[in-house]
Design a protein that fits this description.
Keywords: NADP, Oxidoreductase
Helix content: 40-55%
Strand content: 5-15%
Number of strands: 4
Order of helices and strands: EHEHEHEHHH
Protein name: Carbonyl reductase [NADPH] 1
CATH architecture: 3-Layer(aba) Sandwich
GO molecular function: carbonyl reductase (NADPH) activity
Number of helices: 6
CATH superfamily: NAD(P)-binding Rossmann-like Domain
Pfam families: adh_short (PF00106)
Number of domains: 1
Family: Belongs to the short-chain dehydrogenases/reductases (SDR) family.
CATH topology: Rossmann fold
Length: 152
């Protein structure tokens, strides 16, 4: 098991998640992981940052799949003894062409975003208990973006 610090950013193969990984790779003293449900997209995102001279790593993670969550949790526990930083960026969205009524879409998003988090602690929360020096903090991304190199 490595003593190297590790940061994991969920849903980070594009957009804000990829920008967070880019900033962490430049500033964080440890390994930074891109995660994505699609291996090809995750590997492509990783390759794009490597081409820019950064050193991210990739691990497949579909946060809507409990087996995928359990596998990722097992990997990080076995490899690093836990996770030092978790940026919970992944989310779901409906495609514009989806014909589901808005109320159905809103309810599915609400359930996913709010209730799903209660399924994660059995897998994820124990990963944060690495040593007495570690602590778990919860912050809203918008309130902490300056610390990652983003301008307000």
């Amino acid at each position: 098991m490595s003593t190297t610090k590790v940061a994991v950013v969920t849903g980070s193969n594009k957009g804000i998640g990829l920008a967070i990984v880019r900033a962490l790779c430049k500033q964080y003293d440890g390994n930074v992981y891109i995660t994505a449900r699609d291996v090809g997209r995750g590997e492509a995102a990783t390759a794009s940052l490597v081409a820019d001279g950064l050193k991210p790593k990739f691990h497949q993670l579909d946060i809507n799949d409990l087996q995928s969550i359990a596998a990722a949790a097992a990997y990080f526990k076995e490899t690093y003894g836990g996770v030092d930083v978790l940026v919970n960026n992944a989310a779901i969205a409906f495609k514009e062409a989806d014909t589901s009524p808005f109320a159905v879409q809103a309810e599915r998003c609400r359930i996913w975003c709010h209730r799903r988090i209660f399924l994660l602690p059995p897998f994820g929360l124990p990963l944060f208990v690495k040593s007495s020096r570690d602590k778990t903090e919860r912050r809203y991304a918008a309130g902490d973006k300056r610390r990652l190199g983003f301008k307000a």
